[in-house]
Amino acid sequence: MRERPRTKQAAEPLQEPADEARNLAHKLGLDPYDVNYWVVDYDEMNELIAYNGFQERYPHWRWGMQYDRQQKQGQYTGGKAFEIVINDDPSHAFLQESNAVADQKAVITHVEAHSDFFAENRWYRMFADELDAAAMLERHARRIEEYMADSDIDREEVEQWIDSVLCLEDNIDQHEPFKRQYEQRGDDDEEIENDELAEKLDEMDLSEEVKRQVFDEEWMDEQADAAELDEPEMDVLAFLRDHGKAYDEETEKAEEMEEWQREVLEMLRAESYYFAAQKLTKVMNEGWAAYWESMMMGEEAFAGDDEFLSYADHQARVLNSPGLNPYQLGKELWEYIENTENRREVCRKLLRVEGVTWRNFHDTVDFERVQDLLAPDPRIDSIDPENLDELDDLAPEKVDGEALDAAKEGDIDIERYPWKVLTYRGLAERHFSLCKRQNRGFLRSVAQQDLEQFARYIVDDARFDSVEEAIADVDYATGWDKMRDVRASNNDVTFLDSYLTQEFVNDNQYFTYEFSQTTGDYRVASTDYEDVKKKLMLQFTNFGKPTIAVYDGNYNNRNELLLGHHYNGVMLDVEQAKRTLERVFDLWGRPVNLKTIVKEVDDRDAEIARRRDREPEPEEVGKLLRYDGEQFTMEDLPWSEVEDIAATEVDYDTKPVDWLA
Amino acid sequence: MGLREDLERYREVGEAKRQDLADFIQYGDLGQSLPDEINIPIKIVDLPEFAYDQRDEGGIGQGEPDVGDPVGEPQPQPGDGDEEGDPGDESGDHDYYEMDPEEFAEELDDELGLDLEPKGKEVIEEKEGDFTDMTRTGPDSTLDFERMFKEGLKRKLAMDFDPEFLKEVLRIDGWGPDKTFSWARENAINVSKHWLEEAYSQIPDDEKTEWSSIEEVEENVTRRSTAQKIKEEGISHVPFRKEDERYRYPEIIEEREKNVVVVNIRDVSGSMREKKRELVERTFTPLDWYLTGKYDNAEFVYIAHDAEAWEVERDEFFGIRSGGGTKISSAYELAAAILDERYPWTDWNRYVFAAGDSENSRNDTSENVIPMMEEIPANLHAYVETQPDGKAINATHAEEVQDYFGDSSEVAVSFVNSPEDVTDAIYEILSTEAES
């Protein structure tokens, strides 16, 4: 990262917390990228936030908007911006110099967890294995600035082009690895920077398992001439890059894109892919960071006693902001995963005790006693600096022998960093989730059907004679091990899909709401977990946006573009879709079409429903929206024409049948 | 640095994209604005994108409601707004273009083709070098620091009080914080109840009966005004506010201050249902902004009435509903008294705007209201009739007033039956005076 005069490396008092947070993170089983911490002032912080964490971005009014917003928000929140960390290797994190030390420590622990997530989650590998994001964005900024300064190119035209591309920034195929087609075609343009970039991207080691057929070069060649598609193309930006044209206002014709146009499009597409990983894992990533922050700051007392109150206040504020909060949802879900895994582990052990079966489990198991047996060894629970010798007798895998020796010599400040003498396993016991006060009823609340399932995998010869023996065999690290597996392979959609249960929805009181035509306002629709899950999935699938794909590049044999909206029961914002189509026209140069399905309620039905206090039943109708550069037309399509875009099973509508009755 | 430029571009883009002013007045969300800061939704803040229909999308909430319960406005969902310091996610559904009333008035002039020239009243400005044209942004060197300081000082003067004197008042036998508080309110001393309670608890019990009456206190204790206090002790702190920042265009100098007082009168009786109420708000609010923008100094009086009239604060004005009958003249009586006492015609431009559904007590219009409209000197009297559901037979106030005054340039009558009529009504009212 380019050094700026006013940006200085973490100041002295923060160096130790940063180092120790890193050590603690490792002890807890995390494996973050290295993190460079920078101390910046309030204004610089706002600037960084406006630029999504980076120091250099291409010129665009949108950053100005974010800056403006950030400043206004700052006026209400007292100007406390807490955390910026950017996904890069090494990661960079920014600390605001005016924040209290407790806040800085909280940020640091939070950042270490994010950095672990960046490094370990597979979706972050989709963009590139070797990451140098700051350099890429800076290169893009320089390039676009050059175009804007070029006297042959109208600055406003560049701005408008960027606007048009940004309208489609989410219309990429984010589930596939990013590949830069443009540079690979070997354009003659002598841009050293781009060659460098192309080289770098060529080196990308794409994982075979996710590499897709459609990106084969053969396929690309095939497509280059005839813009025909065997299956819908999700990467709309790539399709426009390869087959789109620019509309020339003067000649009123579609012209080949200028070099700069194609290049800008591709650069912005690359940025979309880069940011996609963060957008795909918002709940997981924020929850992960909040979970470990609270583990390190709260449970491991990383904040000094005097700092803890200020920290707790901050944590509460972040987690309790109104509305659906990804931090909160994520943290709750991670804790729930930890608890259920630990419970599974304990139940499995208990089911192996002579006389305990899944049928009689709740009646035979003395939960109070199990709870006592599970409690961490007192020597681990509270490390006593005066009696370090006590730790000698503990199982060796729980104690960090080297550190213990050093501590006995007085080389380690055990008062402040008691965790140093424990290993990962030792810490797992120390923080075993089922022993925490708020989780005490969790074991008992296990459902019988879960027990039945656990029991299936128990072989007869592995029995314990007593509950004591069974509990002694419990692997305290089960929850954490599982959490790391989950964080490695999931994104928000799979995360929610796999781990959200009725128990979770009940415990955390989630509900769905829908708009009622009859009452004219939003009403609570369901508290059923399947519904809550659906609604959440809707908000996190495809960045929470409708899926739009290219269906035809030569629609009706007239070189028109046909986009299709994968209708899943929730219709498009049609007005906004029109404005977006106008922008797509800029990138296609010829008429553009969008087929979609809308819900229509005729006035008579609405009136009848209102009188009966019911919700009218809308009719789903296929529509073709067309924009020819001047005007829109919208016509009905027969159902057979939209069958391929209509949802078959997934329907995100959660309205109950007798909703308002 | 690049971001400055981005910010400027954003302002330019925002200006081009904000909601058309007439649309905003007729249908926009007026509630996001303050009396001195008009927030006009920017039509397309961010770029368009393929998105779900917001209503059809529904959402997720947390809490323990029953199925079927209303949830109010949708709670913010991920991607709507953002947590602090959270990179990697561009977002934003709506934003506001901020306008000050001056800009609003100018724009409205353009939009409606108005040309209202505010009359200077004979009040010589005491400020040295005054500026008609100020903006909210500009180079630092043109920041009108003096104004900002004065505004801050005014605030301080308005908010500050003499704590020592109040502590003595609290020592009056039998007064205590409650009575002191109401006394302070009557005497326009801006002290909080909380402060008084705190101060009272500090006073030793035997001193709580030191004085027998307020007169005794006033005789024996010297009272210092804030001004005096500042003279004696100097100023330790003047609250600067961002909203007081103005940047000047120094070439224009003006000598007279143009004062205006606007009296807003509203019928709050039972027949004034929600729709009518909203139409009144839609008509009055832009008028208030416009006049605030046109004049150097604008003050507002809000009068609610049914069969009786009473003065209210702005926040309550549009929300009040009462049950009683209607007697419009009661409001004019109160208006006359207030204007007489606080806003002498020699020093103030006056506007008296009334609104209602034209229902009135028998003969009240001809016998009382019309004579008073003639008697109360004002730049303009106006009556706005709101009848969204068609007219009631006995609702004749507006017609009677119109018949009587005809094409007078001092009285305007307009009819607002739906939001579409609002801009016409505003034009009607403002152009009536402009003709004069």
- Please bin the fraction of helical residues of chain B: 25-40%
Mind telling me which CATH architecture of the domain at 259-434 in chain B this is? 3-Layer(aba) Sandwich
Overall mean pLDDT of chain B stands at 78
Determine the N-to-C terminus distance of chain A: 61 Å
Number of helices of chain A: 28
Percent of sequence in beta strands of chain B: 5-15%
Uncertain parts of chain A: 1-7, 181-201, 204-226
Secondary-structure content class of chain B:
alpha/beta
Measured by residues with Cβ under 8 Å of the partner chain's Cβ, the largest interface is: A-B, 100 and 62 residues
Largest sheet of chain A: 5 strands, mixed
Global outline of chain A: globular
Roughly what percent helix of chain A? 40-55%
**Oligomeric organization of the protein chains:** heterodimer
CATH superfamily of the domain at 259-434 in chain B: von Willebrand factor, type A domain
**Helix/strand structural class of chain A:** alpha+beta
CATH topology of the domain at 259-434 in chain B: Rossmann fold
Largest sheet of chain B: 6 strands, mixed
Mean of all residue-level pLDDT scores of chain A:
84
Cα distance, first to last residue of chain B? 52 Å
CATH first level of the domain at 259-434 in chain B: which class? Alpha Beta
Proportion of strand residues of chain A: 5-15%
Notable characteristics:
heterodimer; A: 661 residues; alpha+beta; 4-stranded mixed β-sheet; 13 strands; globular; B: 436 residues; Rossmann fold; 6-stranded mixed β-sheet; two-stranded antiparallel sheet; 39% helix
How would you describe this structure to a colleague?
The complex is a heterodimer of chains A (661) and B (436). Chain A is built from 28 helices and 13 strands. With 661 residues, chain A is α+β, with helices and mostly antiparallel strands. Chain A has a 5-stranded mixed beta sheet with strand order 9-10-11-12-13. In chain A, helix 6 (155-166) runs parallel beside helix 11 (259-280), helix 12 (282-299) packs across helix 14 and helix 23 packs antiparallel against helix 25 (529-540). The longest helix of chain A has 26 residues, at 326-351. Chain B has 436 residues and is of the alpha/beta class. The interface between A and B is large, with 100 and 62 residues. Strand 7 (510-516) of chain A pairs antiparallel with strand 2 of chain B.
